[in-house]
Amino acid sequence: MMRRYADRVALVTGATGGIGAETARRLAAEGARVLLTGRNVAEGERIAAELGASASFVPGDLTDPDCPNALAAMALERHGRLDLLVNNAALDHIGDLLRTPLEEVRELFEVNVFAALTMLQAAGRAMAAQGGGGAIVNVTSRLASIGVPTMSLYGASKGALLALTRAAAVELAPLGIRVNAVAPGMTRTPLYDAWLAQHDDPQAVDHATSAKVPQGRLAEPAEVAAAIAYLGSAEAAHVTGASLPVDGGYTAA
Q1: CB-based contact 71:60 (threshold 8 Å)
Q2: 57 and 179 together in one domain
Q3: Which residue among 5, 155, 182, 233 has the highest number of C-beta atoms inside a 10 angstrom radius?
Q4: How many domains does the chain have?
Q5: Residue 138 and residue 193 in one domain
Q6: Cβ atoms 112, 181 nearer than 8 A
Q7: 28 in any annotated domain
Q8: Is residue 176 part of a domain?
């Protein structure tokens, strides 16, 4: 494993499972000191303990207006700096576009857009205060770029985050802060497994879902984490405002 993150500090939101947990593992393996956050305290503490002294967990609800600033401050307090924000926390949503109540839409955007925005602002201010430089990686979705029935509103929230990524990359470039996105396709996470379990024939649904991907399979969380680790590293020093799909060719088809 490369050591691209030696002496660097990363903050990963939504780090208590799936892509977030694998990203925390990847960054720690590459030498980062990682601050994990999320709402599942038991899982967060378990993963931090698994990663050892280089990692710590702070419970947080990003819809609390004070939480993003507190997390950025915690990174500075514990580690003296903040080099990478992985904006991964998100809420899933499936529903009929014409029948979804507005309160559900507000809750979805509160997590997927407003919480991600305020976390980006807090991390950006912290990076600027330490003299500039740093990277922010927003985890969006294939659905930021394509339409899928029953997922219009989730796609709209991720599309907003993609637009923010591009604009923030331009605005924060003078501060040396890079902002990019990783857009996963269907990924074999616990959330996907729970979705499969709702069907009468999970194996058949899994096969049909994988068959829609040109590579013939779903992404693994570690593959998405690898893309995030690249965009946050010095190897991507001249990459900003980009969206990197990790979808087996789904959005290219």
Answers
A1: yes
A2: yes
A3: 182
A4: 2
A5: no
A6: no
A7: yes
A8: yes
Q: Are residues 15 and 133 in the same domain?
A: yes
Question: Is residue 175 located within the same domain as residue 206?
Answer: no
Q: Is residue 248 part of a domain?
A: no
**Residue 242, token pair as written in the block:** 């980009």
pLDDT digits (tens, 9 = 90+) for 123-161: 999 999 999 999 999 999 999 999 999 999 999 999 999
- Would you call 154 a catalytic residue per the annotation? yes
Please state the pTM of the whole predicted model.
0.96
Rounded-to-integer distance, Cα 27 and Cα 8, Å: 9
Instruction: End-to-end CA distance of the chain: give it in Å, rounded.
Output: 32
Q: Which tens digit of pLDDT belongs to each residue from 42-79?
A: 999 999 999 999 999 999 999 999 999 999 999 999 99
The catalytic residue among 5, 154, 192, 250 is: 154
142-147: which pairs have CB atoms within 8 A and are 24 or more residues apart?
Answer: 142/183, 142/184, 142/185, 142/186, 142/245, 142/247, 142/250, 142/251, 144/181, 144/183, 144/243, 145/183, 145/243, 145/245, 145/251, 146/250, 146/251
* Domain containing residue 202: 187-218
What local confidence, expressed as pLDDT, does residue 152 receive?
98
Residue 77: closest CA among 49, 51, 58, 96 = 58
The answer to the question of residue 90 being in a domain is yes
Tokens 């979808």 belong to residue: 247
